[in-house]
Design goal:
The chain starts with 14 loop residues before the first strand and ends in an 11-residue tail after the last helix. The protein is globular and about 50 Å long. Helix 2 (61-72) crosses helix 6 (234-252). The longest helix has 27 residues, at 115-141. The chain is of the alpha/beta class. 29% of the residues lie in helices and 15% in strands. The protein has a 7-stranded mixed sheet with strand order 1-3-2-6-9-7-8, with helices on both faces. Strands 4-5 form a two-stranded antiparallel ribbon.
Length: 263
């Protein structure tokens, strides 16, 4: 178990927030926003390139999420810790929650993590992030309209050195199609844009945060996966934040998503 003494290095915050003075009934989230590893865990036994690679976080996703929230005039909650420390989009206890290996790369600092340390990591970073999401949803909902949730992720152009992934963006969803289907139509209508329906991952398989906070409560929700080479710099992040805001605005204005409906 980690022990933090008074002179220990500071513990990284569990989350970052983007506040809004607007009245949009939507919350943007980013589960894999940070590559930060707390000083007490050292480097988890990884070389610098791996600590900053896609195995540690979703490259570009945090900046897209911040810019998207500002364009929508809504709040955002971004996880503050690397998914190699604990993955905020996995149920604690799941083998991929504190991975011993990711995309073929061993994570020495996660080998042999005992129950006490696993619980400690969850208490320090996982649960505060999810509590903040719950609090933000409550604040929005108390204004009278059921809020929607939008998650931002990114994916590698190739998987494990294999073939190229053709999609520029994926729209991930589980049972509630109220946002996903019109967004798929709107994005697919853009010339030259290759759009994945539950690609390159499926929202029916890995969707912990949205299922827990939105799906279980009947709140409309959707997750975007953007190819990382398209959001590798500020200009790319701005382009994608602008595009996502443009296609989201008419969907969010639809009265059909402004109520809770459990599927």
């Amino acid at each position: 178990m980690l022990t933090f003494l008074p002179d220990s290095p500071p513990v990284p915050p569990a989350f970052e927030t983007v506040d809004s003075h607007g009245d949009a009934a939507v919350l943007v989230i980013c589960d894999h926003a940070s590559a930060t590893i707390p000083p007490a865990l050292g480097d988890l036994g990884l070389a610098a390139p791996d600590r900053l690679s896609h195995i540690a976080w979703d490259i570009g996703a945090a900046e897209v999420a911040r810019r998207l929230a500002r364009r929508l005039s809504c709040p955002a909650v971004l996880a503050g810790i690397s998914r190699l420390v604990i993955d905020c989009n996995r149920q604690p206890g799941d083998p991929s929650s504190i991975p011993a290996r990711s995309c073929g790369v061993g994570i020495p600092g996660n080998h042999g993590v005992d129950e006490a340390e696993a619980l400690d990591r969850a208490e320090r970073w996982f649960w505060p992030y999810h509590t903040e999401i719950g609090n933000r949803i409550g604040q929005l909902w108390r204004h009278g309209t059921a809020p929607a949730m939008v998650a931002v992720h990114s994916f590698t152009p190739r998987i494990n050195g294999g073939g190229a992934r053709p999609w520029h963006v994926g729209v991930l969803w589980n049972r509630d199609a109220r946002m996903a289907l019109p967004l798929l139509d709107a994005l697919s209508a853009r010339p030259g844009l290759v759009v994945g329906d539950n690609q390159p991952y499926s929202g029916r398989e890995i969707n912990y945060t949205l299922d827990t906070h939105a799906g279980a409560a009947g709140l409309a929700n959707v997750s975007f996966e953007i190819r990382q080479d398209l959001v590798a710099d500020a200009a790319g992040c701005e382009r994608w934040a602008a595009l996502l805001a443009e296609v989201l605005q008419p969907v969010l204005a639809d009265p059909g998503i402004a109520h809770a409906q459990v599927y």
